[in-house]
């Protein structure tokens, strides 16, 4: 495993086309694209890493996985009245389907759906309380204390979050947002600005493994469902492509991170800031493709 990860990291750093770093959030545009880290936390508790696996990065939409788990913990199946479970086939911040589908977003991993899960998780708590609970959940899942929110990134996103505000107001007009768009967006931008290293993220992902050694923070049924949604919706309109190339549930973020779950085997985190046309890490996706092929880890046997 160690040799494989080092080989993947070395190969990626030699790549000519590294994709394009997200620049619509000004603070993210400053990140050096010449980085790739990869970590594997196995089901039985081993940790392997290579490349820039100890460098903290902005987890962005990977936070949607943790918030979904918490929102389901709060309201259970009632969540599905407010958000669907179908791939959208649209970009992460698209507003297109919301009008046709009367303010009910397609799934919890596109931005509109994530705003609903954040609103649900927020409930009647303050953003500070909700974010505190989220950080505690991630620290418990990873057994790592040193996980924080980068306030500069949160502020930078909040100042430029015009599309996300549009989505929130639109859903609020349909009664599908309980809190004000200001409160929801304030919480959402801070959850996206959580920083983690590949090692911390791979360890945190173990809460979605179906083995007895994994942290038991959600029920087995819920783990299966979250994994199913990651498989079908975790990479926006590139979800089918990721499933085809990697064959494992994954969730990407525009910070360049991807969390991948190999049921029964382990949790993998890869990070490289340059994105492909879908807004998913370019080298990260390629690294995962090689990883899955070489290890044979797949949900398809
Ligand atoms: N904070 C980002 C946004 O809402 C998350 C998108 C992503 O990571 O894919 O625009």
TrEMBL record:
Which residues hold substrate?
61, 111, 157, 164, 188, 236, 254
Q: Which GO terms describe its biological process?
A: glutamate biosynthetic process; L-glutamine catabolic process
Reactions it catalyzes: L-glutamine + H2O = L-glutamate + NH4(+)
Keywords from UniProt, A to Z, are: Acetylation, Hydrolase
The record ties this protein, via Gene3D superfamilies, to: DD-peptidase/beta-lactamase superfamily
**Key word Hydrolase present in the record?**
yes
A Pfam family it matches: Glutaminase
List the InterPro entries.
Beta-lactam/transpept-like, Glutaminase
Any one Gene Ontology molecular-function term assigned to this protein's record: glutaminase activity
Q: What is its EC number?
A: 3.5.1.2
Q: Note whether Acetylation occurs among the keywords.
A: yes
Which family does the record claim for this protein?
A: Belongs to the glutaminase family.
Q: How does it assemble?
A: Homotetramer.
Which protein are we looking at? Glutaminase
């Amino acid at each position: 495993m160690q040799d494989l990860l080092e080989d993947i990291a070395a190969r990626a750093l030699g790549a000519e086309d590294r994709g394009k770093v997200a620049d619509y959030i000004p603070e993210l545009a400053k990140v050096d694209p010449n980085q790739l880290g990869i970590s594997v936390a196995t089901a039985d508790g081993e940790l392997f890493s290579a490349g820039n696996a100890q460098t903290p990065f902005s987890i962005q939409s990977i936070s949607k996985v943790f918030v979904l788990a918490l929102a389901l913990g709060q309201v259970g199946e009632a969540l599905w009245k407010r958000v669907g479970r179908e791939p959208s086939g649209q970009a992460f911040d698209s507003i297109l389907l919301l009008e046709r589908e009367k303010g009910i977003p397609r799934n919890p991993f596109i931005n509109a759906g994530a705003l609903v899960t954040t609103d649900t998780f927020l409930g009647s708590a303050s953003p500070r309380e909700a974010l505190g609970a989220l950080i505690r959940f991630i620290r418990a899942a990873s057994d790592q204390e040193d996980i924080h929110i980068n306030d500069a990134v949160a502020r930078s996103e909040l100042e430029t979050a015009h599309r996300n505000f549009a989505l929130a107001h639109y859903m609020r007009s349909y009664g599908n947002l309980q809190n004000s768009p200001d409160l929801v967006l304030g919480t959402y931008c801070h959850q996206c600005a959580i920083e983690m290293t590949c090692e911390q993220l791979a360890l945190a992902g173990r809460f979605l493994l179906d083995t007895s050694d994994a942290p038991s923070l959600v029920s087995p049924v819920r783990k299966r469902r979250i994994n199913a949604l990651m498989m079908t919706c975790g990479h926006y309109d590139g979800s089918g492509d990721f499933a085809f190339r990697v064959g494992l549930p994954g969730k990407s973020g525009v910070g360049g991170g991807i969390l991948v779950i190999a049921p029964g085997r382990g949790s993998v985190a890869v990070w490289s800031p340059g994105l492909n046309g879908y807004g998913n890490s370019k080298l990260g996706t390629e690294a995962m493709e090689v990883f899955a092929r070489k290890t044979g880890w797949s949900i398809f046997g």
